Amino acid sequence: LDFIYTFYLTRPDVKIDKVTRNILRLGLYQLIFTDRIPHGAAVSETVNLARGLVHHSRGSFVNAILRNYLRNPEKVVYPDKDEKTEAYLAVYHSYPDWFVKYCCDEFGADKTEKLLVRGNRPPTLTYRVNHLRFSHEQLTELLDRNNVEYRQGKYLEDFYHITKPGLPLQEKLVDPGRVYIQDESAGLPVKLLNPRPRNHILDLAAAPGGKSTYAAAKMKNQGLITAVDINNNRLETLFANA
């Protein structure tokens, strides 16, 4: 988005404050990637946002860029994929130049592009069953009965990737602590640690508590976990999740 709006600046060295920059990003995103909002409404609301949050003059600035884009979107010229592969990948997939260069050097352009595409996908919702309160059989039966599609974790059987949008069965699963929302990769350190009943575990930078609570379940609530975090507010979240 930053790359796109630079084509519509009157001067390439013009200074843009952070708030205006983010407002421009919001406006361009609506024009380019959404089809439910009429272009006129998107421009009008974005301009009003700039006037209200920054200054009236910034509203005119945002209005000019967005309307110029609508009049002439072909003005944006992307780097040639064959001649400037790294620049193309960085711009098209919205990644820092240094990161794309590093990946291309390590993995090659084709694999790098696959990594970038994968990295831009929205993450799937993952439930980790809490064996202290629920079983695999109870969870799968409840999911099946409510037509919630899922697949079990690739590496950890306690994790279930939910394909249904939103937070399905929140009142029956999440709120009573029968499942914990946690990415499967976050459970791998616990698997490697292999905690057992009566172990004593020290968890540094423990909040919000995913690994600590998973370890506690593996220990069948028998043992001691010392969970430490520098942020008191995040520790409160850990206590709530325990």
Automatic annotation (TrEMBL):
<dbReference type="GO" id="GO:0008173">
    <property type="term" value="F:RNA methyltransferase activity"/>
</dbReference>
<dbReference type="InterPro" id="IPR029063">
    <property type="entry name" value="SAM-dependent_MTases_sf"/>
</dbReference>
<feature type="domain" description="SAM-dependent MTase RsmB/NOP-type">
    <location>
        <begin position="115"/>
        <end position="242"/>
    </location>
</feature>
<dbReference type="Pfam" id="PF01029">
    <property type="entry name" value="NusB"/>
</dbReference>
<dbReference type="InterPro" id="IPR049560">
    <property type="entry name" value="MeTrfase_RsmB-F_NOP2_cat"/>
</dbReference>
<protein>
    <recommendedName>
        <fullName>SAM-dependent MTase RsmB/NOP-type domain-containing protein</fullName>
    </recommendedName>
</protein>
<dbReference type="InterPro" id="IPR001678">
    <property type="entry name" value="MeTrfase_RsmB-F_NOP2_dom"/>
</dbReference>
<dbReference type="Pfam" id="PF22458">
    <property type="entry name" value="RsmF-B_ferredox"/>
</dbReference>
<dbReference type="InterPro" id="IPR023267">
    <property type="entry name" value="RCMT"/>
</dbReference>
<keyword id="KW-0808">Transferase</keyword>
<dbReference type="Pfam" id="PF01189">
    <property type="entry name" value="Methyltr_RsmB-F"/>
</dbReference>
<dbReference type="InterPro" id="IPR054728">
    <property type="entry name" value="RsmB-like_ferredoxin"/>
</dbReference>
<dbReference type="InterPro" id="IPR035926">
    <property type="entry name" value="NusB-like_sf"/>
</dbReference>
<dbReference type="InterPro" id="IPR006027">
    <property type="entry name" value="NusB_RsmB_TIM44"/>
</dbReference>
<dbReference type="GO" id="GO:0001510">
    <property type="term" value="P:RNA methylation"/>
</dbReference>
<dbReference type="GO" id="GO:0003723">
    <property type="term" value="F:RNA binding"/>
</dbReference>
<keyword id="KW-0489">Methyltransferase</keyword>
<keyword id="KW-0694">RNA-binding</keyword>
<dbReference type="GO" id="GO:0006355">
    <property type="term" value="P:regulation of DNA-templated transcription"/>
</dbReference>
<keyword id="KW-0949">S-adenosyl-L-methionine</keyword>
